[in-house]
Amino acid sequence: MTASRRSRRSPVLLALPLLGLACAGAAPPPPPVAAALEPLAARGAYVPDDVDRAARDVAAAALAGDAERARRAAERIERFDAERADARERGGEDVLSQGAAPTGLAPIALDLVAATRGDERAYRARAAELLERDDLEPALRARLQQTVDDDPLRLADARMHDATVQEWGQAFNAVAEPVGTSITRGPLGAVELARSLLGLAVARHVQDDMSVPERQALTQWKRFVAEHPDAPEAEEIRARIAEAQAEWNRNERDRALRRAREALREDRAAAALVAAERALDFVPEDRDATELRDEAQARLRARRADRARSLEASPALRTNDLAEQRRLALALWKPGADVRGTAEGIAGQAGETPIGDEARFVLAPFEPEDAMWASWDALAGEDASPMARHSRALVANPERNPYAAFRQGLGSDRAARVGWVLFGPLASGPRRMDLPRPVEWMIDAPSYLSIVTTFPNRLVRYPWLAPWPFGRVPAQHARTYLERYPDGVHAPEVRGWLTEFEAERGNWAGALALTDPAAVEPARLAELRENAARQSLEAVRRERRRDTRAALARELARSFHDTTAGREAGELAREESENASPQRIRISRGFLAENPRLRGPEALGLRAELVDGSARNGELHPEGVYLLGGRVIELCFLGEGGDEEAKPRCERKVVSAERLARVVTLLDETSQRNALVDPDDPLAPDARRERFFEQARLGVADAYDPRATAMSSYEYVGVRERYGLVRGRESLLPVDIVVQGSFPDFGLGAFPRIRMPKPTPDAALYR
Question: Are 716 and 710 in contact (CB under 8 A)?
Answer without folding.
Answer: no
